[in-house]
Structure formats: structure tokens, C-alpha cells
Amino acid sequence: MKCVIVDDELLAREVLSHLVLKTPDLIVTETFSNAIDVMKYLNSNPDVDLIFLDIHMPNFSGFDFVQTIKNPPLIILVTNDKNLALEAFNYDCIVDYLVKPILPERFERAMERVRMKLHVGYIKPVDSNDPQEIYVNIDKRLIKIDLNAINYIKANGDYVIIKTEQQNYIVHTTLSKLQEKLPKTQFLKTHRSFIINIAKIIDIKDSTVLIGKDVIPVSKNNRAELIERLNLI
Amino acid sequence: MINETPNLEYLEQLAAGDPKVRQTIFDVMVKEYFADYQEYKAAIAQNDVKKSITFVHRLKHKIGFLGMEYSYQIAHRYEEELRRNSDRFQSEFEAVLLKIQEFINSTPSL
């Protein structure tokens, strides 16, 4: 995994660099003393997996950064102030919150969270050009379905069943036609009868994935692509 | 006020017995501490509250680094008071800084 460190204090950057050095599956590609420079860096280095981000920085805070950046990688916030923890978890990309001085055991726990999140397939938010929803024709009504709410889609004869967190929609179409309308970064066909939302995977075992309480088959031909799409360690 | 002295327990934990790491991080802490201290004193002299808050915040991290939990709370409260344009806890905070300087001066090399 590649990470960058953003903190206006040299001591904090030094301590974090040392802790990263002790972590075999993590390397620091760059350190920054302000958030503006890291934004430029991320534009030309989109393969960064993780940012250690100080909240309290002059002029442009860590939260300003999180609110501004498009397609953020995972972020671990670093700060002196415990009181900001609740706000931190309003953002999906923020995996943990470390209070200075950072203890090595606490750092390792944060890294476990990162690994877990990457293992289950954290994907950066969809590109703004990708559709955010689809409209399906059900009983002569066009019904809007939020793509992020879809768990998976199952073929069922001349119909497909779109399973969302709240309800199921039965639509008269084929899986292939529907697949053409879905963002490739977010959805994957795992079997001739199933398309899954990668972000909804809870775990993967043998030739199945668990989404919600449902076990979805993964065919031998699609398994390699699924594994490739996950950030496996 | 609780009589608290700086210590290097946290640094020892980080270094895990590696003298080079211990020295490198300690040197960075000392260098940045004195730079932050000078900036803080200048900000106070210029009555620049925003800058004072920034450097109290930065010094707070060094106080925590040196294991001074009570003093850390003093710094935190002083930072909050500064945000309200009050100088409450200034003398207590500066007494903590004095202790740190004495400690650094008595620890020339690790």
C-alpha cells in the first residue's frame, strides 16, 4: 500500500514516517506540510491508497481537504483534539482517527482497519461522469433507483430482480442489457445470473461472496476479475 | 498546579531500543520545539492571537510527546481561552514551557 503524510509539524511527520517504516505492507511515497500541495500530488498520483491527514493546519484544514477532494483514497485523521472524532466519521473515506502522540499499538489497530476496508473492496467514489442512478420501467412507471443502494442484481427468466437495501424491483429486461447501463467501476458480473455492487461485499469465501445476508455465486471465469478488482494484500 | 516533569517514555516506545531512531526523533522534537517557542513568544509580543493559537497548538503536541498529561490539559485550556480572546492559563502554560526547556538543556544527548 502507498501512503502520504500531511502534517504541518515536522515532528508529527517524522513519528508517522517511523511508524509506517515498521509496517511491512505500507510505504510513504511523499510527505507534505500543507493540504494544498497534496491535492496537486494526488492529481498526478492516483494510486495512493491512504493519507495520514492532520486536521489542524493553518489556512486549509484537514476537513477542508476532505470536503474539497474528489475521489479520495482512504484517510486516517491525525490530531491533538479528541473532540473532532464524531465529525470525522461523517465521511466514508475516513477509516480511523489517531490522537497525538500516536502509540504504536494504536497505529497498528488503525492499519488493521485500513486492511479490512481494502480487503472488502473499498472503491473510490464513482467518477462524476458515471451515472448515480438508473430509471427502470415497472408497470408503466419509470422508477428511479439509486445505484449506491443496489446490493446485487439477479437474472430470473425474462426478468431481473434488482435487490437494494430497502426493497426488490422486478424489471422486464436481461442482465446483459442492464449491465450496459451500470458503471463498470462499481458493478461486476460474477456469474451468468448475477451482477454485484462491489462496495457491498462483506466477505468472499471459496466461490461465493456474501452481500447482506445473501450468498452470491462467483463462477470460475469471473473469479479472477473479482480478485483483481479488490485491493487484496 | 501538579508538579509534572517531562519524560521520554513515549520516545522509548517508538524507538523500541534503536538508539539512532531515538536520537533522530529527539533532535527533530528539540529543533521544532525551540522554533515553535520563538514563534509563540513573537506572536504574544505582537498581540497576534491567531498566530498565538497556532503555536500553542503546535507546542501542545510536544508537551504530549514528553508525557506531560496534566500540562497538556493546561495547554489545551489555554488554547481555548485564546480563542475567546482571554489570556487565562498563560502563566501556567509558560511555566510548563520553562520546565521543558530545562529538561532539554539537561538532556544534551541520548
From TrEMBL, chain A:
<dbReference type="GO" id="GO:0000156">
    <property type="term" value="F:phosphorelay response regulator activity"/>
</dbReference>
<dbReference type="Pfam" id="PF00072">
    <property type="entry name" value="Response_reg"/>
</dbReference>
<keyword id="KW-0597">Phosphoprotein</keyword>
<dbReference type="InterPro" id="IPR007492">
    <property type="entry name" value="LytTR_DNA-bd_dom"/>
</dbReference>
<dbReference type="GO" id="GO:0003677">
    <property type="term" value="F:DNA binding"/>
</dbReference>
<feature type="modified residue" description="4-aspartylphosphate">
    <location>
        <position position="54"/>
    </location>
</feature>
<dbReference type="InterPro" id="IPR011006">
    <property type="entry name" value="CheY-like_superfamily"/>
</dbReference>
<dbReference type="InterPro" id="IPR001789">
    <property type="entry name" value="Sig_transdc_resp-reg_receiver"/>
</dbReference>
<dbReference type="Pfam" id="PF04397">
    <property type="entry name" value="LytTR"/>
</dbReference>
<dbReference type="InterPro" id="IPR046947">
    <property type="entry name" value="LytR-like"/>
</dbReference>
<feature type="domain" description="HTH LytTR-type">
    <location>
        <begin position="134"/>
        <end position="232"/>
    </location>
</feature>
<protein>
    <submittedName>
        <fullName>Response regulator transcription factor</fullName>
    </submittedName>
</protein>
<feature type="domain" description="Response regulatory">
    <location>
        <begin position="2"/>
        <end position="115"/>
    </location>
</feature>
Automatic annotation (TrEMBL), chain B:
<dbReference type="GO" id="GO:0004672">
    <property type="term" value="F:protein kinase activity"/>
</dbReference>
<protein>
    <submittedName>
        <fullName>Hpt domain-containing protein</fullName>
    </submittedName>
</protein>
<dbReference type="InterPro" id="IPR036641">
    <property type="entry name" value="HPT_dom_sf"/>
</dbReference>
<dbReference type="InterPro" id="IPR008207">
    <property type="entry name" value="Sig_transdc_His_kin_Hpt_dom"/>
</dbReference>
<feature type="modified residue" description="Phosphohistidine">
    <location>
        <position position="57"/>
    </location>
</feature>
<feature type="domain" description="HPt">
    <location>
        <begin position="18"/>
        <end position="110"/>
    </location>
</feature>
<dbReference type="GO" id="GO:0000160">
    <property type="term" value="P:phosphorelay signal transduction system"/>
</dbReference>
<keyword id="KW-0597">Phosphoprotein</keyword>
